[in-house]
Amino acid sequence: MSVLSGGVFDLGWPLVTLAALAGVLLDRLFGEVPRWHPLVGFGHVATAIERCMNRAPAALAWSRIVGLLAWALAVLPFVLLAGWLVVMMRDVSPWRVAALDAIALYFAIGARSLHDHIAPIALALRDADLPRARALASRIVSRDLTQAADEPIARAAVESALENGSDAVFAPLFWLVVAGAPGVVLYRLANTLDAMWGYRNARFTGFGWAAARIDDVLNWIPARVTAISYALLGHTADALRCWRTQAPQWSSPNAGPVMAAGAGSLRVQLGGAARYEGVEEARPSLGTGQPATATDIARALTLVSRTLWLWLGVLGLSAALTWGLS
Question: Which residue, 54, 120, 191, 282, shows the most beta carbons closer than 10 Å to its own?
Fold first, then answer.
């Protein structure tokens, strides 16, 4: 019996659709859990594992092996626990499995959190409150915005909205459909470890290699489905052209397609120079049209929201067709 059970291949479209709708509704109603969030506890566990296993300098190959073992130690016990719960609940009722899937999605998805963190940046820019806009934007991106003007702040916010729309909204929903609660747990914990360990610096170049590559694999399909969705819901021809010509120049195999298609769909210019830890980095240009403004931040959030409803609509249609044919 598969550990990654509970998705559409196990429950069928109607129950998976209900689980997805319930998880999204819980996120919309309650947002991110303010205290005792499971990912906070997982972060403490991951930090302890990293401090224990990533100590003495070692050869690159050995560091990668140690990092892979650390990743497995941090992630797999929770995935196996979710799989065991699914098996136990399935024996009682598939509705309980659907409820578990919905709860897992609620803790993993970040649609409301994305809006709550990014929308205020647009308001601060519209009010010409640059210090507040810089402070708010610095909470969601790693680049240096301490002296940034309006356009770099707006560009950072739009990029974050588009990229996190894939990472924090659509990828968890994708893995819910494919593998239920265990798939959601696998994806969210792997994505968290990529954010914690996936740096290209002296400490994590070897140790964090597995975390970064596994996250790339788990995001590969969701990122491209997200890019297609962005393209369909905006200026499609521009989005597809930007994806085809600009995404290959981007360092990330998944962020490139998502942001290029999103920027083309919105007809806004993204990418370009950004400062990280005092060093100016020349990133490839993305999109087309005019430089980003506060209005484009709201447009990017609207695109993410419309894409979410598109995915839920497709799930609902699939459930209705399945129900009608049964």
Answer: 191
306 burial (CB, 10 Å; 0-12 / 13-18 / 19+) is: middle
- In sequence order, what DSSP letters do the residues of 265-285 get, joined into one string? HHTEEEEEEEEETTEEEEEEE
What is the pLDDT at residue 242?
98
Residue 7 in any domain: the answer is: no
Is 229:257 a contact under the CB 8 Å cutoff? Answer: no
CA–CA dist 79, 51 (Å, integer): 22
Residue ranges of alpha helices (H) inside the chain are: 8-11, 13-30, 38-53, 60-90, 94-108, 111-126, 130-138, 150-164, 171-197, 209-232, 236-246, 255-266, 294-325
Question: What's the total number of domains in the chain?
Answer: 1
Structural domain includes residue 1: no
Residue 3 belongs to a domain: no
pLDDT for 22-49, tens place per residue?
Answer: 999 999 999 988 778 899 999 999 999 9
DSSP state of 292: P
Cα(285)–Cα(247) distance, rounded to whole angstroms?
9
Handedness of CA 142, 167, 48, 55 (dihedral sign): negative
Q: Bridge partners of 279?
A: 276
Convert the pLDDT of each residue in 101-111 to its tens digit. Answer: 999 999 999 99
Q: Residue 276 above 80 pLDDT?
A: yes
Distance CA 73, CA 15 (A): 32
Would you give the DSSP letter of residue 251?
A: S
Structural domain containing residue 206: 12-325
| Under 8 Å between Cβ of 162 and 260 | no
Inter-residue contact 118 to 141 (CB < 8 Å): no
Planar angle of CA 108, 118, 41, nearest 5 degrees = 30
Say if 63 falls within a structural domain.
yes
